[in-house]
Amino acid sequence: MTTVVFPGQGSQSLGMAKDFNDNFEISRLTFQEIEDYTKINIRKIIFLNEGNKLDLTQFTQICIFACSYVIFKTFINQSEYNKDQINIMMGHSLGEYTALACSNKLSLKECSLILKKRGELMNNAIEPNITGMAALIGKNAEFIENIIKKNNLNLQIANDNSPMQIVISGKKNDIVNSNEIFIKNGIKKFINLNVSAAFHSHFMLGAQDELSDEIENLNFVENDVKIISNYDANIYKDSSLIKNNLQKQMANKVNWTQSVVKLEEVGEKKIIEIGPNKVLSGLINRISKNFDIVSLNKISDL
């Protein structure tokens, strides 16, 4: 059996999935469908970076989702791969929504519209340049958490990406002031991230509450594909539980390391990463060497 994984914000690049749009009618039609639902000219943003919108959270999320979904749908349509071979799907942050659409647990229309709303809410959740995020390279989440507690830092772990890469969220001045503390405690690299706010932290609680009301009204479908939740890194098939975890995702940590460990625990061996770039493949390889990983992000990968 196979697990399919989908990337989140930060994986975007100019021209992503353009080769699919240029060569497959199903790709063009799928892009068009998402554009019709959202009333956003997604292809102008991702192929031309019209209005410099590609890296704006309000547009980035729907653009990455569209590319990942287009690649997945084209892959299934053009290859001899049997969808019944897919046992588990999961994604990193917004990628969890892609997993829900590609597993048919959410319709393309509903997923497109909820991600449009999510991007808007996260973009407007807090005044720009007040909060931010930083990537810490070299230590695991437990180590970082201990430094935060020991030094009374007003910071939160946002993404547990691998045992060697942790992302923190907080006020920008708190992040800047923590740099020296982390470096003194053995962090190899401290990288300030170019993001508009402190995602996956308490700063997102207001936006999370608003999005939760929208998620409550979505029509989740029961099927045999399992989903691993970012919220607690457990495997779910029951739609009510998947929805409940999704409602808590935006203001809480992305448990990516634990999610990959969970795959290993249940005996999954093959992973297909679908979406722009190969961010998740790199993270998974740092967590475990026991997976056969294939990345699909250009037509030569089909």
Number of helices: 12
Q: How would a crystallographer describe the biggest sheet?
A: 6 strands, mixed
CATH secondary-structure class of the largest domain? Alpha Beta
Task: Give the rounded overall mean pLDDT.
Answer: 96
Radius of gyration from the alpha-carbon trace, in angstroms: 18 Å
H and E string: EHHHHEHHEHEEHEHEEHHEHE
Write a brief caption for the model.
The protein is of the alpha/beta class and 302 residues long.
List the helices and strands and how they pair.
Layout: E1 2-6, H1 18-23, H2 25-38, H3 42-48, H4 57-78, E2 86-91, H5 94-102, H6 108-124, E3 131-137, H7 141-150, E4 155-162, E5 165-171, H8 172-184, E6 189-192, H9 205-216, E7 226-228, E8 235-236, H10 239-246, H11 256-265, E9 270-274, H12 279-287, E10 292-296
Parallel strand pairs: 1-2, 1-9, 2-7, 9-10
Antiparallel strand pairs: 3-5, 3-6, 4-5, 7-8
